[in-house]
Write a structure and sequence with these properties.
254 residues, 8 helices, methyltransferase, methyltransferase activity, alpha/beta, SAM-dependent_MTases_sf
Length: 254
């Protein structure tokens, strides 16, 4: 599915300047932000282990490109664990923080990046990209022969998406321009000649997205909404059929 109407490419940037856009925020201001930041500590380690487990070439200095690296926490985690890291982040504010955090170069566009990589990661990024097909082809060209790409996106066929409908936080309009399900993502990858190796659920996302959806529904944060969101997140994971979790990671190779 697509967001329509959508902002112009020139206007998109201002929707990432809001204090409510927590993934680019450096401070935790409210209950939901604190939950996000706390769960991120666990998720960073989990993502790192996921990358290590699926690397075919396990050298001491594997190369990784994090496309849409945000404020750089995942890049920092990888660098601390021996990876040679490269980041791409279009937001000036987030990119400056990522460069400071990693003490390295973070590019503003993919066109600036040279060379190829054993690992490319897109953690909740593809849904933001205006030029979807062109960007997938560019990323594919930068993936080494035995490399692997991790694409994490929300799944609009999940239980929590069906529960909250138009108030589901996973839609996040107008920042999210594309909305994926397992069938459509599989079709998209096949179109670009990418081999889908496996699909992994991001179970923590169901809790956070449901809590944020409760906030969207009521217009404010509350303990009651927090609890109801947690309950719906638990239900989403418990009732999910294969590949119908709140967010899915697609592991792909050339």
């Amino acid at each position: 599915m697509i967001t329509s109407p959508r902002p112009t490419n020139e206007a998109l940037g201002r929707y990432y300047l809001s204090d409510d856009y927590v993934s680019h925020a450096k401070k935790s201001k409210g209950l939901f932000d604190k939950v996000y930041k706390t769960s991120r500590l666990y998720t960073l380690r989990w993502k790192l282990n996921l990358v290590k487990e699926n690397l075919r070439s396990k050298g001491n200095s594997s190369t990784i490109l994090d496309f849409g690296c945000g404020t750089g926490e995942f890049l920092q985690t990888c660098k601390q664990n021996g990876f040679v890291t490269t980041g791409v982040e279009p937001s000036d504010i987030a990119r400056a923080h990522a460069a400071e955090l990693t003490a390295g170069k973070v590019h503003s566009t993919l066109e600036e990046v040279e060379g190829s990589f054993q690992v490319i990661t897109l953690w909740h990024v593809l849904e933001h990209v205006p030029d979807l097909n062109q960007k997938i082809e560019q990323l594919k060209s930068k993936l080494e022969k035995d490399g692997i790409m991790f694409i994490a996106v929300p799944n609009h066929q999940s239980y929590d998406a069906r529960t909250y409908q138009e108030r589901w936080a996973g839609y996040d309009v107008p920042r999210h321009l594309w909305h994926f399900s397992e069938p459509t993502m599989s079709q998209l990858l096949k179109k670009h000649g990418l081999t889908l190796e496996k699909i992994i659920p991001m179970k923590l996302d169901a809790f956070y997205v449901s809590m944020l959806s409760e906030k969207h529904s009521s217009g404010r944060s509350s303990i009651g909404g927090f609890i109801q969101g947690f309950v719906n997140g638990f239900r989403s994971n418990a009732l999910a059929k294969p590949n119908e979790y709140s967010s899915l990671i697609y592991l792909v190779r050339k």
